[in-house]
């Protein structure tokens, strides 16, 4: 029986929540996938879902708290959210479930420890707590007390962090937290480790760090997916290391970046959901944007991009956000986590739906009018698009003999373990491992050609990276005797490999 100390729920609600907790912890509640429709659940059910997820992932044992204590904390989080059109507790619950989906239905959980999961999920639930429905730009332009308190930087994220820390203290939520992993937490108590990770997760939901996060993540993915290529490299050792069925644990900073990316991905995921949900979230976020535009007019402040209800268009806003913000982010995530690929397919389908909704031409002036092609204006503010990164190391590493031999070896292993007949002899795959690196930029005279060539190189490397991951992932599934999944994963591999062959 659930008992709350600090909040009140009716006994009917407590019974409802308890029922849902039981179902979720047994994995028996449907509707928690990417089709999660937050509007179709009562508040008590939502609370039950959140507690149930912690229980399902065995995190109550890590936090060393009861279901009732967690429920009490969650009710307080709900009370901390303002009932705005978009940034309400419903958005928090939605982001929480999408975070859960990203970690539990991909292999990425294998890279994290239980304390990271605790931080990530609490971060997801609290990341917009106290959001007034008027964004950072508004806070700064109106020179209000909040903006001054936080020095005009990441104002709302810092505010949400402070509100979260207050609630964590109020509920002594991290007082007894103890990891079940073997990792020694250095320099910190485990509570401080989780608290620090929560703050970093929340801070990374600031849209102004979006592109920086992509860069950081690309580096981490490179480090995690590349085997050491040097003269000392021994294939046998490499295989031994990776055949235990688990991944080598990334260092703390890299695990933090993975968490930041997962939370940010969940935060902008409404665009990659089935169309009905995508449209509904867009409707409510536009209500909030236009309200901000109205407030800006009223207070003689500069009207934020796309927030003027007289001059904004939903299709235009959605395509711009999807094409320039969401797509590159999920593409990088899908390189690491092929399980995310269906979300990119949804984005593409939603794009068609947006266009068919609106007969006007697709947006022409997508970039700001100041002729600076590296600045993009979206409702979140003006984002700096970084220069294209240097060619990722994947282009180099796939063309080495050692790597090709190892990969071939992997494939033979997979084929043996899974009893799957490869449609091409494994040796053929080494061909796809050799990526034709396009001529270097200095060799290309024309500016247009240069850009095209560079984009092509980037595209090839992205696919190569995906293939490299698919191989490791397939092997891992096979080692774990999850053969059906391994077979499925093999088909991704075939797909990506043939894409690559088209380039070489
Ligand atoms: P957050 O404010 O933490 O939820 O950060 C996500 C930001 O992404 C939002 O503030 C919006 O600026 C932007 N965003 C999310 N979903 C959409 C959408 N469907 N259309 C346009 N912008 C969006
Ligand atoms: Zn959010």
UniProtKB/TrEMBL annotation:
SMART domains: HDc. Its cofactor is a divalent metal cation. Signal peptide: none annotated. Gene3D superfamilies: 3'5'-cyclic nucleotide phosphodiesterase, catalytic domain. Binds 2 divalent metal cations per subunit. Site 1 may preferentially bind zinc ions, while site 2 has a preference for magnesium and/or manganese ions. Residues 1-361 form the PDEase domain. Pfam families: PDEase_I. Belongs to the cyclic nucleotide phosphodiesterase family. This is Phosphodiesterase.
């Amino acid at each position: 029986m659930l008992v709350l100390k600090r909040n009140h729920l009716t006994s009917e609600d407590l019974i409802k929540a308890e029922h849902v907790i039981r179902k979720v912890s047994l994995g028996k509640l449907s509707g928690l996938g990417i089709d999660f429709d937050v509007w179709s659940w009562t508040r008590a059910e939502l609370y039950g879902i959140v507690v149930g997820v912690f229980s399902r992932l065995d995190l109550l044992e890590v936090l060393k708290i009861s279901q009732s204590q967690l429920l009490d904390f969650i009710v307080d989080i709900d009370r901390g959210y303002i009932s705005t059109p978009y940034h309400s507790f419903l958005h928090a619950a939605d982001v929480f479930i999408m975070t859960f989906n990203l970690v539990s239905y991909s292999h990425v959980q294998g890279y994290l420890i239980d304390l990271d999961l605790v931080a990530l999920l609490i971060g997801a639930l609290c990341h917009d707590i106290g959001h007034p429905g008027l964004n950072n730009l508004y806070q700064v332009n109106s020179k209000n007390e909040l903006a001054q308190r936080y020095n005009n930087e990441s104002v709302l994220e810092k505010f949400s962090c402070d509100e979260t820390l207050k609630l964590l203290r109020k509920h002594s939520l991290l007082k007894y937290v103890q990891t079940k992993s073997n990792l020694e937490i250095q320099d910190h108590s485990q509570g401080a480790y989780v608290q620090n990770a929560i703050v970093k997760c929340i801070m990374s939901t600031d849209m102004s760090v979006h592109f920086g996060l992509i860069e950081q993540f690309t580096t981490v993915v490179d480090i995690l997916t590349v085997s050491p290529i040097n003269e000392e490299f021994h294939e046998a050792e490499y295989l031994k290391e990776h055949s235990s069925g688990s991944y080598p644990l990334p260092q703390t900073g890299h695990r933090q970046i993975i968490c930041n990316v997962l939370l940010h991905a969940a935060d902008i995921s409404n665009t990659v959901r089935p169309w009905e949900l995508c449209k509904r979230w867009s409707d409510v976020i536009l209500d909030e944007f236009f309200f901000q535009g109205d407030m800006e007019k009223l207070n003689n402040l500069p009207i934020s991009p796309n927030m003027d209800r007289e001059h904004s268009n939903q299709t235009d806003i959605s395509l711009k956000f999807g094409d320039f913000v969401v797509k590159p982010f999920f593409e990088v995530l899908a390189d690491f986590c092929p399980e995310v690929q269906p979300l990119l397919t949804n984005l593409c389908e939603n794009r068609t739906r947006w266009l068919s909704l609106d007969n006007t031409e697709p947006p022409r002036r997508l970039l700001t009018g100041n002729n600076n092609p590296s600045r993009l204006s979206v409702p979140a503010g003006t984002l700096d698009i970084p220069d294209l990164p240097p060619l990722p190391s994947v282009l180099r590493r796939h063309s080495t003999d050692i790597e090709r031999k190892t990969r071939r070896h992997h494939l033979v292993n997979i084929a043996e373990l899974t009893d799957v007949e490869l449609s091409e002899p494994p040796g053929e795959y080494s061909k796809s491992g050799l990526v034709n690196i396009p001529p270097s930029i200095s060799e290309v005279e024309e500016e247009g050609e240069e850009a095209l060539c560079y984009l092509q190189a980037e595209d090839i490397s992205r696919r190569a990276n995906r293939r490299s991951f698919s191989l490791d992932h397939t092997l891992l599934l096979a080692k774990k005797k999850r053969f059906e999944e391994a077979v499925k994963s093999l088909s991704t591999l075939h797909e990506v490999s043939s894409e690559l062959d088209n380039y070489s």
